[in-house]
Amino acid sequence: MATPENKLAFEGGWEYSPAPESTDHIKVAKKYELFIGGDFVKPQSGKYFDTINPATEGRLSRVALANDADVDKAVKAARKAYGGPWSRMKPADRGKYIYRIARIIQERAREFAAIESLDGGKPIREARDVDVPLAAAHFFYYAGWADKLEYAFPGRSAKPMGVAGQIIPWNFPLLMAAWKVAPALACGNTVVLKPAETTPLTALKLAEVIADAGLPDGVVNIVTGAGDTGASIVSHPGVDKIAFTGSTEVGRIIQKALAGSRKKYTLELGGKAANIIFADAAIDQAVEGIVNGIFFNQGHVCCAGSRLFVQESVVEEVIRKLRDRMETLIVGDPLDKNTDIGAINSKAQLEKIESYLDIGREEGGDMYQSSCAVPEKGYWCRPTIFTGVSQSNRVVQEEIFGPVLAIQTFRTFEEAISKANNTPYGLSGGVWTDKGAKIFRMTQSVRAGVVWANTFNKFDPTSPFGGYKESGVGREGGLHGLDAYLRLEA
Ligand code: NAI
Ligand code: MG
Prior knowledge:
This protein has two domains: 31-269 and 469-489, Aldehyde Dehydrogenase, Chain A, domain 1; 274-453, Aldehyde Dehydrogenase, Chain A, domain 2 (3-Layer(aba) Sandwich). It starts with a helix and ends with a strand. The chain is an alpha/beta fold. 41% of the residues lie in helices and 18% in strands. The protein binds 1,4-dihydronicotinamide adenine dinucleotide (NAI) and magnesium ion.
């Protein structure tokens, strides 16, 4: 509790000495080529684009831009590997390669964490404690399934689909690559993966890992580029399955492009998760959960708890405690281990977030931001809350993908549910209460793929993840994640 002394310290802002993660151990090349057929090859486009550090706006590297011809080459390499060594290999041996990838990621964890933080702007603490260990855990988990598919789907024959085209976003670059590549390989498919244009570096490092792990050439191909490169993968006739994570807008474009084709697809799209706090909840713990749910990783999380519903009798307490906690959050150098909120991933994303701050105010919302200083260069957004907003407001309805929380109140259980479900999305949700029965009722009633109780943003490779409504199609993770990469026959 606040003693007079620590209250004073708090009002002056907590002072921490800088604790920067060293970057001496990492190697970022000046230029990266495409990873096709087991080799790093120059793009036929002849073009390269910059990837920058959003905390400094400085260039980190130049990365090859794959055009249609490059994508075609990658798909052909994947097809050749699929028809050749990969499908002839014993499933247990495929598993050994996947284990090897997992172990190399663990060995190089510090390097991966630092590069993830540099390229995308996320705090090193998160990259180190969440992204990299979870990425390794996904490879470990799916490696174990490679020779056990007949137990996963008893009585049915499980066949790979062929070549999987995988397109991932910039918020969890290595982790999203792991979510996609690990189950695809475990099921015997080969892969063409495209990372996001603002965060290609850890996928290119993963290409090095895959080469070091000795996978047969062409089993995993990594092509870099922006939307056109992604679209080229989607429309390529040699691709059997598309797995996409990103915006609902692009998800719709992909769905249209695939309509009527034989290609299978899974889409992991946007979200506007509700965090629901009942008066009987442990309030301090709930406040910590709200902060974790929307402010960490700059709100760049599809399952971010971006809507908060608080039972009326505790709303003043929750908001007071939340504002106090917001004042202690440190926004700044992503490589500093004390940093809670790093850089916004790109200038475009910062502009989008700022436009929503204007929209929220124009709609009549009361905006409150923490008072912390932010660096001059780079893309930054202070943690922000809106109160006095209503269900029809755009800041309540639309995905902002920034550290911006819209707060509303409710009186009854039913009101909480109807408000929480009043959204085009349905990816995740959270409930905070002392009563187990309320938790069960809530998880039955919230239409979302994942509902956390008295915690938020917890992930594990064994549990499926995915959305309802405009949040997507299909599930990733766990057994469900295998299903998405197999043809199951009776
Ligand atoms: P985006 O959906 O455009 O990008 C995601 C990936 O799709 C990237 O690799 C991109 O190059 C690729 N892509 C873009 N256009 C494509 C097309 N026509 N065909 C195939 N691939 C294509 O997301 P963006 O523009 O980076 O962010 C915009 C908004 O999307 C964010 O503000 C956020 O609201 C949402 N978003 C949601 C994510 C999630 O995890 N659900 C992740 C990233 C963004
Ligand atoms: Mg970058």
